[in-house]
Design a protein that fits this description.
DUF695 domain-containing protein, alpha+beta
């Protein structure tokens, strides 16, 4: 069996991975991996250090800590068991979550049908026809990227959805890879799209025997 490898995405700026458990398994002795609050403080301070030419105003480090804590607690619940990454190119921006996971292939479902369904390429609820484009990954080959506008059922706001999907097939193993983003701010998605493309192209499938060492440098 193979597994989803997000090691390289974890080290990709401007992305931050949210642990799915606290303390994070394997990092029980690492202070910032103990709680959402300690994780958020670590990254809030680190992000502002990365922007050394811009000194944070009073309270801005605490504000970013609170924002990251909120995302660490709430974001994983949107798509349980998905890996969660935050796109945060500047400490004054609002994080944009990206969700990544493997999806089991339904018996008899062909690749094109599955990828279009996963990306909502033919969604009837879209406000206008989705923008469906091919995207190539050096590890997963050809996939789909779909950008669509839709009305959120709870808020009635117009949201922008961005999804990527690939099919992985090797020997007797097969799975679909899905990446999901959504935001009410179209500009936020469009400004991030180049970074999201780069992020998506780092995701890969690795043999199960490498799993024990997947967090190694």
């Amino acid at each position: 069996m193979s597994w989803l490898n997000v090691k390289h995405a974890m080290n990709l700026s401007p992305w931050i991975r949210i642990p799915l458990m606290w303390p994070e398994p394997g990092l029980e002795d690492v202070a910032e991996a103990q709680t959402p609050e300690s994780w958020a403080r670590y990254f809030a301070e680190g992000l502002w250090e990365d922007f050394a030419s811009e000194k944070p105003a009073a309270g801005e480090v605490d504000l970013l800590t609170d924002i990251l804590t909120m995302y660490a607690v709430r974001a994983p619940a949107a798509f349980p068991d998905f890996e969660v990454f935050l796109h945060l190119p500047h400490p004054r921006e609002i994080p944009l979550p990206a969700y990544v996971d493997l999806v089991e292939i339904e018996e008899g479902e062909d690749r094109e049908t599955a990828l279009r369904a996963l990306t909502h390429a033919d969604a009837s609820y879209s406000i206008e026809p989705p923008i469906v484009e091919a995207i190539t990954s050096p590890y997963l080959g050809s996939g789909l990227r779909v950008l669509r506008y839709y009305q959120d059922e709870d808020s009635n706001e117009v949201h922008v959805g961005l999804r990527y999907a690939w099919r992985y097939e090797k020997g007797t193993e097969a799975a679909d890879i899905l990446i999901i983003l959504a935001d009410p701010d179209a500009g936020r998605i469009l400004r991030a799209i180049d970074d999201v493309d780069e992020f998506a192209r780092t995701v890969r499938i690795s043999p199960d025997e490498e799993a024990d060492a997947w967090q190694s440098p």
